[in-house]
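hey so i finally got around to running the thing on that chain from the lab meeting. sorry it took forever, my laptop kept dying and i had to restart like 3 times. anyway pasting the input first so we r on the same page abt which one it is
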Amino acid sequence: MRPVVFCSVAALACAGCGGDIGASSGGGGGEAPATSASSTGGAGGSSSSFVDAGSSHDAGGEGGGTPADGGPPIDAGEDAGPVVPCGCFEGPGTYCADAAWARALAEGCALPKAESQAGNLLSCHGDVWRANTTCEGACDGGGSAADACTDVGYQLPWQCGADKLCTAVNAESWHHQAGSVTEFAFDFSFAIDTKVRAMRGGVVVVARFDTQPGDPCYGGCDEAPDVCLAKCGDKANVLTVRHDDGTVAQYLHLNAAAPAIAAKVRVEQGEFLARSGNTGWSTGPHLHVMVMKKGCKAGTCQSIPMRFHAIGMPAKGAKYTSENCP
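ok and heres what got predicted. didnt touch it at all, straight out
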């Protein structure tokens, strides 16, 4: 048996935004090993690619040279400064655009236009820059690869006072892949039937629990990738919650919904949403969570950068104690 990897993968198209999950209309949810834009070179001053979050990996969607949040395009036009593109300054991560632009000027390399991106949160992976999020409030950080919007802090999605292990982070090799719809997802180790709690209040959009005990994919899939994709790629039980600012949280690989949880029901931060599981293309019990672009109406849409209250960006292999208290 292969080593356990706490993740699932499915063939997805960005949805909600443009349609339901390409191969996932029945089971809703999953993670796609989407191909990211190609790039060459290394750190700052190297050759890099400039892409927008809608044109290279938003398969269902807007495209047309604008980022996923509908903002202006990233480009390296004639007024963007030096002709040499910047690499990821401190490595892969997220950067406040205004701070990143200042650093680009200091280091003599090019970034997206500062005047159109000030206040936005950019991501950089493999020296590919994207405008992923327009902060509702301020963008916090000085261009250090761990910048984030200051207006939102998500609580960890489990019981207050309990500890969980982070098993997968953003832009991992074959899951949460850079450039894919799941780029900004996190996985946490959850025992079967652990209570999953709302990271933030909102209204349930999707509550899809078609995979039930006795079904082939209720206990995950640990066969060859092509077999798992065909058999379980669209079978992960999924629940999504739309927040007051329009962004949508996804909770994936669930076993069962909590009593009274259904589409259009209002939930509060910390509320019991569902019980965790191992449904769909998953090789071990865990919870996959991510925050998706505004307006998502389906099980999976383009993920956007997020951070958690008190801990910021989780690190793979680290344990965290939830403060998701009543």
